[in-house]
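Duplicate of earlier report; Glycosyltransferase RgtA/B/C/D-like domain-containing protein input re-posted below.
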Amino acid sequence: MGHPRHLVRPVLIHYRAMVKPSRPALPRFFLWLLPLSFVLQLAAIGVLHQYRMRPGEDNFGFGFEMGRIGRSIALGHGFSSPYEGNTGPSAWEPPLYPFLIGGVFKLFGIYTPASAWVLLGINCVFATLNTIPIYWIGHRTFGERVANWSAYGWALNPWVWSFGVHWIWDVTFTPLVLTCIFFLAQELQEWPGWQGWVLFGALYGVGALANPTMLAFLPFCGLWIWRQRYLRGLTSLTGVALASVTFFLVLSPWLIRNYEAFGRFVFIRNDFGLQFRLGNSTGADGMLMPYLQPNLNKLELENFQRMGEMAYAADCKRIAFDWIRAHPGRFAVISLKRFFYFWNGVPRPTSSVAPVDFRSSAFLATSVLAFWGLLRALRQKRPGAWLFAGLVLTYPTVYYFVFPHARYRHPMEPELLVLIVFLLTEVGKSQNSEVRMQK
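Output:
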């Protein structure tokens, strides 16, 4: 005798609420794939001589502002001086990566090849480890086949390596944290108890201290988790409170430090005024205007040193907003251009006489394929498809109003890769079906 549906559903909800979601075991090929990926990345550093940093501008290209702050930390001056001169306490960059640079400088020397090798090697570790949550995301959303090929596509992808082996920056740590957050959000749909929420809050706190841009995804991500749990009959209020408390506990030491250093509240970093002006002032055309940066402009450096970074950032913000108020139409046009450049790739000088810049064309192709895969996943109502959509819609928004750069898309590359692999496997299935029908 069958059970009435209205009695079966509550039993299923109760059962699922009592069972922690299980992650699929990693395939055996990970035993050779991860070491191979890491070794290939190290080989690229050596073969391409990426450990030889540009000595010009007193080694400013070695980590840029983060490298300067790391030097100050290693010299015992604390988190300070993102440019030349002793300009005092700083919040010009989020704290995690400059502290990593400072620790490496302390152990292996300031601006030395050994420090470059260590920092780039750490980047390679983060990039390699990211293969694991990428596999789990692909498996949970699209199945084992997509998961396997996504793992291969990330671990053996020279485009992925190019960031970690070249940039002494958070270019591999931020993608790793964001990918872990994305997967944890998927897990929290069914995760009972409080541990998952605490982990979510802690991960987001760590991510914000590495790159606050990922906070743009937080509201959508949180609402998505709440809705999925609500549809499953699970409560979220206590978990949201735990995650929020954990998040602010992770941030609080840095926020307290900033208040003590500047005598006012500074949320993680204070360089937004300059970043905003670099994309919005006289001569703005939708791209970065690097000649306004203090490291490249002597007058701007003098203003930074004379005014201090808080006052300098506020003045840059005022200049940018004054320009926008005087040119609202122009601001709208270049914001649309920035949207296009973010997904198409920023135009670069080329010596080719061909009308098409194939470097940008490849960048655009991956964007188109990812969007196509996302639309297909939404039409098929794949689990988690709207979480992918939320990431694509929210994460890049700040760059549409500041300026775009190829590395700004990189934190989303793991999710974009999964969508591309999903699309390609679907195309392969369609072709196989047509062949069978013809036979």
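Residues 245 and 268 are 17 Å apart (CA to CA).

Merging into the original ticket.
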